[in-house]
Inverse folding.
């Protein structure tokens, strides 16, 4: 390959969006391929916890485990205080924000909404801004990485 073509190829590789480059590795990459987990490199995987606020309810706690951008069964969420739990299915990114479809599978009555959209936006100090919208309600808060997460 001519040196000028090699330089152009290297520049194109460096200019490509990170998410495009990471997508070829799949969910965590196969052992021995040199690929690393795309979501981890983006800082979203792991265990997160935070205090949420929703009109008409006392503040409550969320604990989420994000393990995969491809397998929603691997992403679990639980809301203490309102006794709801379910899964997050990765929808994609809008700018810096990661979007998930939340499906609540277990919980008590009217405080547990069945389906909605959770938006997680990276913030300072390794935190995530949290916003849920669905079922006519909106919740907001800040998540921090849980110990061991």
């Amino acid at each position: 390959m001519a040196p000028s073509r090699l330089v152009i190829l290297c520049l194109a590789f460096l200019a490509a969006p990170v998410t495009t480059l990471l997508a070829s590795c799949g969910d965590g990459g196969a052992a021995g391929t040199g690929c690393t987990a795309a979501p981890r490199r983006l800082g979203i995987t792991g265990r997160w916890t935070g205090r949420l606020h929703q009109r008409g309810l006392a503040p409550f706690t969320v604990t989420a485990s994000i393990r995969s951008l491809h397998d929603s069964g691997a992403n679990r969420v639980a809301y203490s205080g309102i006794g709801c739990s379910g899964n997050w299915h990765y929808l994609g990114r809008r700018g810096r924000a990661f979007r998930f479809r939340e499906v609540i599978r277990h919980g008590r009555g009217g405080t547990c909404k069945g389906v909605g959209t959770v938006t997680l936006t990276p913030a300072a100090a390794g935190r995530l801004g949290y916003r849920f919208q669905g079922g006519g309600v909106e919740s907001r808060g800040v998540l921090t990485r849980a110990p061991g997460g």
